[in-house]
Amino acid sequence: MRRIARVLAGVNAVYQGLAGILCIASPPLAAGAFKIGEPSPVVAALIRIAGGLLVGNALWLGLLARAPEAHPLLAPLVIAGSALNLTADAAIIFASDMRFDQLGAGMVLQLLLVAALAAALFSGALRAAHPGP
Q1: Where do the domains of the chain lie?
Q2: H-assigned helices in the chain
Q3: How confident is the model at residue 25 (pLDDT cuts 50, 70, 90)?
């Protein structure tokens, strides 16, 4: 389960990192990728802000994928942050602001990551690194 969690953290890091870079570099392209149409200047600014947050999150996910035991609080924090993000995405869908097909890929990746991390933590597959003697 540890290996699956690490792979999913890495896949999420790449997905969020690339999506974030796209949002920062070209809000109109990002808007097209997420099927939201041509963004107004205010929406373009919000897309860039979201992009910065995605890239920042990708860095934490990359760290988790690389060495989960070296940072024992990172896995529970990623679970909590992903759960909050999934809640926000669900609220967006239930409010009919966007559809599942616009957010689904990221949601599925995060849901799989949360499940794998939780299973790895509860099974003891992820343990804190202990300094040498």
Answers
A1: 2-123
A2: 2-25, 27-33, 41-66, 74-94, 100-123
A3: very high
